[in-house]
Every structure is written in C-alpha cells, then in structure tokens.
Amino acid sequence: MKQLRFYSETELYLGCLEKNPNIQKAVYDYYSSKMFALCLRYIKERAAAEDVLIIGFMKIFDRIHQFKGTGSFGGWIRRIMVNECLMYLEKEKNLYNEIGIDSVLPAPVYYQPSDELAVEDLMKLINSLPMGYRTVFNLYAIEGYSHQEIARKLHISENTSKSQLSRARTHLQKMLNLKSGQQNRELAC
Predict the structure, then answer these.
(1) What is the pLDDT of residue 95?
(2) Could you tell me which of 85, 92, 91, 81 has the C-alpha nearest to residue 33?
C-alpha cells in the first residue's frame, strides 16, 4: 500500500501552477469532500452539486495563475466554489424563490436550542429553506459575507439581502418551534 504524502498549501499551489497531475489529484482528494458539502448547502440536488463541484475544480486548475498568494489557498478554492454555486443557481433561475410575506410569522417566538439539536438537524433545516433565503443565509451566516458583498454577488440590493436574511431567520425559527413542539408532544406520550 502506498503511503499518502501530505503537502503544504504552498506545495499544492505550486504543483497546480506547474500542472502536475499528481498534485492536482492531491488537491482534489484533500478539498473535494469539504467543497461538496459546501455545494450541497446551496444546491439541493446531489447530481447538480456534483456537477458544480467538478466544474469548480476545473476552473481552479485552469485559473490557478489567478491565485495571488494573499490569504489561504483553501480560502481561494472555497470562494471559487461559492461563486460557481451562485452562477449555477442564477442560471437555473431558482435563486429568487421567495415566500410571501403572509407566511412569515408576525412576531417570532424564540426557541432555545438544546443539546439534542445536532448539527445534522440544523443543516437539514437550513437546506429546507427556499432557495433565495438559503443562499443569503449561507453567504451571510456561514461564509461571512457582508450584505454589501452579497448584494454585489447576487445582483440585488442590500435591503433585499437584509430582508432575505431576516425571512430566513424567521423561517428557521418557525421550523425550530415546530420541531420543539413535536419533541415535547413525543416526550409527553
């Protein structure tokens, strides 16, 4: 059995710059599972997420010369994947799926998360959000983009970004309250 060699980010970057297939495979092997999870946060369908992942890696290898060395190589790869997901969503025209204002709770009832709420459960709730809400929520809460950056990336206004985030949070709160109510009923039985 071959022993796996671990490379530094600099070695990975330089190997990709030289178009070394062994290094490119190492980059794919190292980052693909993390980037696939990222793609699944934006794109519900596994097959489409896999397609976006492959296209993203092709762009990474094709545009490696654009990495300036400021920041981490992994962060640069992540930005490419996020942008690729957003381009897919825009192309599919599913990005701006919104829920009408009538279906949003007028005054949120705050749920206190318990230890019983696993990360998997939370990710399932996030993935069940409508596409527009989920995209803005991921960009803001998980990726750390500002509303100004989100507005530029999605070609929307800052206020629309803020509104989508607010609605996403309200929608998540509503789902958490429903989940909490179901758990309480199950415990009472």
Answers:
(1) 52
(2) 81
